[in-house]
């Protein structure tokens, strides 16, 4: 299921209007409508808010979001830190120019 389809399903299952849902999540209705229509996707910050607000759908939200093949910058940073640690450096190596 695509992210936008899941968002609509969650809202309808809660018997909420867009205005009610966005009021609870402190989002603008237009932002949410863009997610639900598939025109846009949430930031990673908003993704965490959605997973917290709908814990019973958290895994589905994460899975549908990942279908967009997006990379969470927090995961990239963690992978870089692990690599730097193995190289015994605390800062990223300088870019040779």
Descriptive overview:
By secondary structure, the chain is mainly α. The model has no long low-confidence stretch (mean pLDDT 84). The chain has a single domain (3-86), classed as 434 Repressor (Amino-terminal Domain), CATH 1.10.260. It is built from six helices and no strands. It is elongated and about 55 Å long. The termini are far apart. The protein has helices at residues 3-13, 18-25, 29-37, 44-53, 58-66, 73-86.
Keywords:
97 residues, 434 Repressor (Amino-terminal Domain), mainly alpha
Blueprint (SSEs and pairs):
Elements: H1 3-13, H2 18-25, H3 29-37, H4 44-53, H5 58-66, H6 73-86
Helix pairs in contact: 4-5
Q: Spans of 5+ residues with little confidence (pLDDT < 50)?
A: none
Class in CATH? Mainly Alpha
Average predicted local confidence, pLDDT: 84
Query: Do you know the CATH architecture?
Result: Orthogonal Bundle
N→C terminal distance: 45 Å
Portion in helices: 55-70%
Radius of gyration: 18 Å
What is the H-and-E element order?
HHHHHH
**Looking at the structure, what is the overall shape?**
elongated
What's the quaternary structure here? single chain
């Amino acid at each position: 299921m695509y992210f936008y389809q899941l968002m609509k399903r969650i809202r309808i299952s809660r018997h909420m209007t867009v205005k009610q849902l966005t009021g609870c999540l402190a989002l603008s209705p237009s932002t949410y409508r863009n997610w639900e229509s598939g025109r846009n996707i949430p930031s990673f910050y908003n993704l965490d808010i959605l997973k917290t607000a709908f814990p019973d759908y958290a895994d589905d939200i994460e899975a549908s979001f990942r279908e967009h093949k997006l990379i969470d910058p927090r995961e990239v940073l963690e992978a870089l830190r692990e690599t730097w640690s193995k190289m015994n450096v605390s800062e990223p190596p300088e870019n040779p120019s």
